[in-house]
Amino acid sequence: MLDINKSRLEDLSESTKTTVLKWRNQHHIRSMMFNQNKITVREHEQWFENLKNNQNQIVKVFYYDEIPMGVVTFTKIKNTLLYEWGFYIGNIEAPKGLGTLLGVCALDYYFTSMNKHKLVGEVLAYNQKSIAFHKKLGFQQEGILRQHYSVNEKLHDVHLFGILKEEWFEIRPYFNK
Does the record bear Acyltransferase in its keywords (predicted)? Predict the structure, then answer.
């Protein structure tokens, strides 16, 4: 059984940035992203440098048992107080269920350390695992943008999710079991 006490989030660093690029370029991760292009080393380096002065994006590496396993990002939505999140487990040796721990750590961080009131997520309709994941974590589906995003010249719906701070703290004890 996985132990929440063995998980933590750390800032993306020089020591983990190459691993994150490798994970992000894996086909099974790229194919679920809005940007499905393979990221070059140069693009990644530029992104990493820009993060240092970017107050609107927070990138954390998720660790389990001292091993980097995944990534979570929080990106401020322009002209709002809200952030949108993105996440993935990149380590192919990650034990089953680790995504849930990543989600719990991320939501705890967002609502406690960042002290925000609402988090939103957007999911491509064909990413059924992510849709189920959001619902499992207590997100409410707030809408569907029909035929909204083009992937390989095919239009896809985008599911919109949101969770309020009080909703998270209501469901949070369930994940201590």
Answer: yes
The pTM of this model reads 0.91
CATH code assigned to 4-171:
3.40.630.30
Quick: pLDDT tens for 17-68: 999 989 888 888 877 776 778 889 999 899 898 888 898 999 999 999 999 9
Q: How does 119-151 read in b/e, with b if 16+ C-beta sit within 10 Å?
A: bbbbbbbebeebbebbeebbbeeeeeeeeeeee
CA–CA gap between residue 121 and residue 17 (Å, rounded): 24
- Taking the C-alpha atoms of 38, 71, 54 and 43 in order, what is their torsion angle to the nearest 10 degrees? -20
Q: Are 141 and 173 in contact (CB under 8 A)?
A: no
Task: Dump pLDDT digits (tens) for 135-165.
Answer: 999 999 999 999 998 888 899 999 999 999 9
CA distance linking residue 50 with residue 123, whole number of Å? 25
Asked if residue 135 lies in contact with residue 121, where contact means CB atoms within 8 angstroms, the answer is no
